Amino acid sequence: MDIRECDLRKEFRKDFYRHDYLSRFKIASKKADMSAIIPTHNRCPFDKKSENYKYNPLSVCITALLLQKSPISEIVVIDDASSDNTKEVVKELAKEAYATKGIEIKYILNDEKKGSSIARNIGAKHASGKYLFFLDDDCIPTPYLSFISMIVIKKLEETDKNFAVLVLPVYDRASYPQKALSIDDLTRSFFKRGVKSACFNSVPAEYLNLRNKFLNKTLKILKPIQVYQTWGHFIIDRDKYLDVGGFPDFATWPNKAGEEQEFACRLIENAYTLYYLPGTKASSYHGAYGAKIGEFKGDDWLAEATNEKLSLVRFSKLCNSGISSGNRVNVQDFFYSKIIAAFCIIYKRNIKEAINYAKKSYQEFVVENKPTWYAGYAKDPIDSRDKREEIWHRAINDGLNLLFETEKKKLNKIEGFIESLRTKGRLDEEERKNKIKRILEEIYQE
Fold first, then answer.
1. CA–CA dist 174, 196 (Å, integer)
2. 76-88 burial, b for 16+ CB within 10 Å, e for fewer?
3. What is the rounded distance in angstroms from the CA atom of residue 228 to the CA atom of residue 388?
4. What are the structural domain ranges in the chain?
């Protein structure tokens, strides 16, 4: 749904959208039983001598978590084999966090790069909070995020016994959403009709004019919407996270694309529900470090919250000129990952839709080279059809091989289980015969 940017700006200048709207209320600073989990890889490029030291993306992320009006219980950082200043930055922040806020920062270092999916699972194992807040290392949460989230979570736990995940907004280099989508588009399951359209960088278009849109009228907290996928920016009950086995470890492609979609499928298939909370007060700014997607848009709430010690404007410029790090990959690997991830996830649920996705992606990416395929962070077009054809074929073929190997392993496990039952059955039968034989011998002796 197309809505002019000026109209969105006008909407988000309304008083209750401000990050500090709740400052007029008496808010109890009760600690939230929540662990923030941050997988990271090479997001601390600036050393102590650099004037940008405090603008290391991971450092800004942790600083914002320590500014939460409802303090979180701990921060878990999983260093996925970084080769920069990550360890030193985290150790320094850990001392400060414990001394000034009484908040522990746990630091876990992987000896080799395992990817964010496995890193998140490692973080969850080390977390002690009842709720897990997953976010990227270049996300900057607004000060009332934990406070508002817990109000919404407690309400949803009362009204929906299957509730598991609260997905939170995350805005790319902005303090408010840059687009409006219909609720139908926001809630559409990504594996239906080969479409993946849910975008939590947006606001429900219906909410722009809807009067009855508040879960809490006093605090002006918007009603959450049930959705069917999640990004890596959400809060979940730890037990429910573990119940579905956490994030997948099957992704062998470069940037682990699709791990959040696979995780959402696991939740839904286990009858859990997911909700998206629109609005800016419980959102995060996303720096997209290393991606050239332009300058900051909106109000610099971080400058206000830190008395000008940090600024989203300056941070955005550093992110725009940053080096490639984290899961960022080149444009060819980006499309390869996008195609193989979607194909594999859809295939595991619906083979017919996987075939439809393959056809659709071939037409739109290979044949037409549609601009919509370059939305997000892949700005450089691939002009050569032969190159696009090669990427597409490699992705689909590798996907089929991966699925075949996975199914073969499953069959081997099933066959092993069946054989163990047969073996147990034979042993039980032998034991029965031996028991009868012993009884007969005892009778004979008597």
1. 23
2. bbbbbebebbbee
3. 30
4. 5-320
